[in-house]
Here is the input.
Amino acid sequence: MNSPFDVAIIGAGIIGLATGMRLLEEFPRLRAAIFEKENTIAAHQTGHNSGVIHSGLYYRPGSFKARLCASGRDELISFCAAHNVRHEICGKVVIATSGGQVPALVELFRRGSENGVAGLQMLSPGEVREFEPYAKCIRGLLAPGTGIVDFRQVAKAYADVFEKKGGELFLGARVNKVKDLDSKTVRIETGRGEFQSRVLINCAGLYSDRVARSSGMSPPCRIVPFRGEYYRIKPKSEYLVRNLIYPVPDPGFPFLGVHFTRTIDGKVEAGPNAVLAFAREGYSRTRISPLELWETLSYHGFWRLASKHWRTGMGEMMRSFSKPLFTRALQKLVPAVSMDDLEPGGAGVRAQALGHDGKLLDDFVIEQTEKVIHLLNAPSPAATSSPAIARRLVAMAGGILGAV
Here is the structure.
């Protein structure tokens, strides 16, 4: 058994790394560790992120997302500037392509304004074309504070600061079990040995609910993986998209719909759709984990979700297998895009928390037991919000340390 840490963190994605960095900035004398099952940092959600620095437009006023996105965005931009992480504040337009979408677009303007998003403007079709000449719409909404970055580089910078401040990063250290050792210590069983810690923070992303259960907690949700599949616009056609073009989202479904995103390296991604993944690391259609698929299909919350959103789900699945259907969805935003303009892009898996009642949880979910803090749901804009989420988790850890 190794000598105990003050705080141990599970998961070297962007949230775990931000939390480790923040912890040692606030409490430089603590001994801290991060355990990561992969042999590299940012291997899953962070490494497959589209790289958008969100402005806080979509989120219910007063929610964790709204509050933590606003403060986290500003901290993230300052951090990138201070650590020479390349980023750009380029703005985006959200466009209504039918009259029925205009009320939802106006509601987005209201929400964004209430959340303190600066510079929002409702645009006419002609004004939209000044920003995106090939977009077609009947109304638009400009969010000039939206930006782009490579979150893998942000995560690397977080990790560098964490280690320079004395933090210990254990790669290839899958956490198999967590349990109380005594009234003041948690035992963490990993593939690289057993460790002790006074406080444990669960930032395991796709496996956060499993870690919670292994610690004896009954989480209020289960992680259901959704794969997001992208196409890339071929270089010859990248002129069709200057920056970011988004549709008006479906208010009943916590995915933003297919959209266009320029990345920090100048490429243009188109997508993603959102389909059920058959494994928690199901980055392709052929990746199937029978056990993990059974976890989803045997969960009554999943069937309650499916009964409500089966039409949307079928549409997403059909688009996954049909390039013409995918192209048609993109043409609603930019009619000039053709199938010939698209080449296969990447894919990511979103760790979506699903409640027992079948509701997709649309806010960050943080639960605490006596010595363990669990981040159970951290979908977009978690990467943008990472400094603010980290600040909250560190405050909670400090409260536990003061009590033990």
Q: What stands out?
A: The chain has a mean pLDDT of 93.
